[in-house]
Write a structure and sequence with these properties.
The chain is built from 26 helices and 10 strands. Helix 19 links the parallel strand 5 and strand 6. By secondary structure, it is α/β, with parallel strands linked by helices. Helix 12 crosses helix 13. The longest helix is centred in the first third of the chain and has 40 residues. Strands 4-1-7-6-5-8-9-10 form an 8-stranded mixed sheet, sandwiched between helices. A two-stranded antiparallel sheet has the order 2-3.
């Protein structure tokens, strides 16, 4: 039931718009999402690498994990330039749409395999543990590990399909919980492994630079087998590096999650990068080393698909305690590997959303879910492809691992080249750079960035020949999706007929009646009225200066109509009639500004016959304390303020006391108090009032007079004389006063 005060406010019908995803998360949540992919590779990367290149694999895993920080620097630099700074956006800006579509096709190949390989690996761990426990209990079980793994992978994929359909926040919360449990397991594992190696002779992995250490056969060399390239040391090094590179997945997810990282965005992005580097370096690389140092050589191949489980069984200590820890390892493995399935959906969803926004996919894919607001059709497509991969592999993790690295390394290589090109084509517009830059005169030579690009491109090229199955599958997949993207892009171009690209999709709730607390907006919020998507400088300023954890920012657009909407006089309007392409373009720009700052905003469209009435009435209903707008092309700031004040006067009580801020394109602002308020007095006004007070109080009878008595008398006399024949003379004097002191007047009134 409304209170009398609330009930006296006019009912305002509005249209609330929400974008597909405008929630912001902490760097801890962002780290958890990326680590669900990156750290999960510790469960299978070491075993797969040793299976192909031999016992020296841990050194290559360590090299990959150290190099991952260099790759992460690429993503931080590109994200400092573009909030949505994934492979597609950066490659397109640097090298055009054709290479961008090839790059994103390779990246999509990576994501389509990331989920299945992680979920299938979880199934392999669980199947192995169930069989080990059955043997321990003297009731052996016989079933196919691969089929069991495939069944579990399907269940995991369906679970996270639903969670991502519900929305990002719920998925990030789940990832954070998984990583908290994983951290407990990692700490126990590292401490127990350290105790074990200290109590037994240490068996370090052999140096891969020594002749004959790296396994050189058809499985490791692929098409390079029996060629003179196989005898070059640097080729052998890159062969080992390339077979270990799947330990470095997850970087593209960092770029996609960057959109949702909260303010201050760049600092939190750097923190996220540091957290995932330290975590993955310790976990992934040390697992590979401890496996070689602890598990005997003759039985270690049996644990390549279950490496951490094998470590648990060969630790020092009671058998029962090792079995208990083995169970914990498997539990955590299932959780983190299932989390990687989630991460692959989040990342692929982000990539395809960027592609759709750029007009490469039709808007049909981006249509928000009616209930949750997520791009559910893209999520459906991603999960469907992953389910097909699981069915095709029949749960064989080695088949998936062999294919996996193609998309990872080629997307990295294309990204690094694009960032390098942008250093020369767009030398400015970045708040952070990859270190290692040599300045000669006015020319900057990006040595660090060039070396990173060279390593990635060389590794990608070597992998092209050594992982021939992945090359064939990856090229076919990329070619198919490139064709789909190209045909879809042409279709979108015909649909748009020159309309602007990169527009977000919005859910619109029609005829929402605003009231205190509506839209989840707290009282004393800031209402920002916008009208031009190319001039939102004042919105960016408000966001940069506002702590949105304490004060909400509402962005509104007034949609004007100049007659009754229907012949019956009804003013009920349909959402499509007040939210069309213009509002979509306007709010897309507003959302981009909010994402850049990492701060949330609320969006609404208010139909009305007068823009100033619409703004003031909305501010009244939302209990706003400030109204911010841009300078009109037709009115002066004073005229805008006067019309806003007139609209305020037309409102019924209770009328709020508001501050109106009007920003000019040069960034200067004029501030006006709307409604009754203490006037801003110039020094000469105060001096004159004081002189009059001294004059009056010379008479002892008026010794008790105050300055406000002088002001009250003057105002009453002015009010009386304005109703006499002296009105014209007084107004002429007022005009002269305004003209004489206009240069001295401030922006307040």
């Amino acid at each position: 039931m409304a209170t009398p005060v609330e009930g006296s406010k006019p009912a305002i019908k509005v249209f609330v718009a929400t974008t597909v995803m405008l929630t912001f998360i902490s760097f801890w949540r962002a780290s958890a999402i990326v680590l669900s992919d990156l750290a999960s590779s510790a469960y299978y990367a070491g075993g797969d690498a040793e299976k192909v290149i031999g016992k020296s694999a841990p050194w290559f895993i360590l090299a990959v994990m150290l190099f991952s920080y260099c790759v992460r620097a690429l993503y931080i630099e590109s994200s400092s330039m573009f909030v949505r700074g994934g492979v597609y956006r950066v490659v397109k800006e640097a090298m055009g749409g054709t290479l961008a579509k090839f790059s994103v096709s390779a990246l999509l190949f990576d994501y389509v395999l990331t989920g299945p390989i992680s979920a299938v690996s979880a199934g392999q761990y669980l199947a192995g543990f169930i069989k080990d426990m059955a043997v321990y209990l003297h009731h052996p079980l016989h079933f196919s590990d691969n089929y069991f793994a495939a069944a579990l992978a399907i269940a995991v994929a369906m679970y996270f399909w639903w969670k991502n359909t519900q929305g990002m926040h719920e998925s990030s919360q789940k990832a954070l919980q998984i990583m908290a449990i994983t951290t407990v397991m990692v700490v126990i594992l590292l401490i127990w492994c350290t105790i074990t190696v200290l109590r037994a002779p240490i068996q370090l992995p052999p140096n891969p630079l020594h002749a004959g250490v790296v396994r050189l056969d058809h499985e490791s060399l692929g098409w390079l087998n029996h060629t003179w390239f196989a005898h070059l040391t640097w080729i052998i090094v890159f062969v080992g590096f390339g077979h270990s590179v799947l330990a470095m997945s997850g970087e593209e997810t960092l770029a996609q999650v960057n959109r949702e990282i909260e303010h201050p965005k760049l600092k939190n992005l750097e923190k996220t990068g540091l957290v995932i580097f330290i975590y993955s370096l310790l976990f992934t690389s040390l697992v590979s080393f401890f496996a070689v140092m602890i598990i005997p050589d003759k039985v270690r191949p049996d644990y390549f698909a279950n490496l951490i489980g094998g470590i648990a069984m060969y630790l020092v200590g009671p058998e029962s305690l090792k079995l208990l820890f083995h169970a914990f390892v498997v539990l955590v493995g299932v959780l983190i590997l299932a989390g990687a399935q989630n991460t692959s959906i989040v990342g692929a969803n982000g990539v395809l959303n960027r592609v759709a926004e750029d007009g490469v996919l039709t808007s049909w894919f981006q249509k928000p879910h009616r209930r949750f607001g997520t791009s559910y059709r893209i999520i459906n497509l991603i999960v469907l492809m992953q389910l097909l991969v699981i069915f095709a592999s029949l749960g064989n993790v080695y088949v998936l691992a062999a294919l996996y690295a193609f998309g990872v390394i080629w997307s990295f290589a294309m990204k690094s080249i694009a960032v390098l090109v942008l250093r020369y084509t767009e030398p400015g517009n970045r708040a952070w750079k990859v270190p290692g830059n040599l300045l000669i005169g006015k020319t900057e030579i990006p040595i660090g960035l060039t070396l990173i690009s060279a390593v990635l491109l060389t590794t990608a090229t070597v992998n092209l020949f050594t992982k021939y199955e992945a090359t064939i599958a990856g090229v076919i997949f990329s070619a198919v999706f490139y064709t789909i993207f190209t045909l879809s892009e042409r279709h979108v171009a015909k649909e748009r007929h020159g309309k602007p690209e990169q527009l977000d999709q919005f859910r619109v709730y029609g005829n929402q009646e605003l009231g205190s607390g509506a839209m989840g907006v707290r009282p004393r919020n800031i209402l920002v009225a916008v009208r031009d998507p190319r001039n939102l400088y004042y919105l960016r300023h408000v966001l940069s200066q506002t702590d949105t954890t304490k004060q909400d920012v509402v962005v509104m657009s007034a949609r004007l109509y100049h007659r009754e909407h229907t012949f019956s006089g009804s003013r009920v309007m349909d959402a499509s009639q007040v939210f069309d392409h213009y509002e979509q373009e306007l709010f897309t720009a507003a959302v981009a500004a909010a994402e850049k700052e990492g701060k949330p905003i609320s969006l609404l469209v208010v139909p009305g016959m007068d823009v100033f009435d619409a703004i003031m009435e909305t501010a009244q209903r939302l209990d706003s304390v400030r109204v911010v707008c841009g300078l009109s092309n037709k009115l002066t700031a004073d005229e805008q303020a006067k019309l806003s004040g007139d609209a305020w006067e037309r409102m019924p009580e209770p009328r709020p006391r508001l501050t109106l801020e009007i920003y000019a394109p040069d960034g200067t602002a004029r501030e006006y108090a709307i409604g009754p308020h203490n006037p801003h007095l110039r020094p000469q006004d105060v001096e004159l009032m004081h002189k009059l007070w001294l004059n009056v109080t010379q008479d002892p009878k008026f010794s008790g007079a105050h300055h406000y008595h002088i002001v009250a008398l003057a105002l009453e006399e002015l009010q009386r004389e304005l109703s006499t024949d002296q009105r014209a003379e007084l107004l002429q004097k007022l005009q002269q006063e305004m003209n004489r002191h206009d240069g001295d007047s401030s922006s307040s009134n």
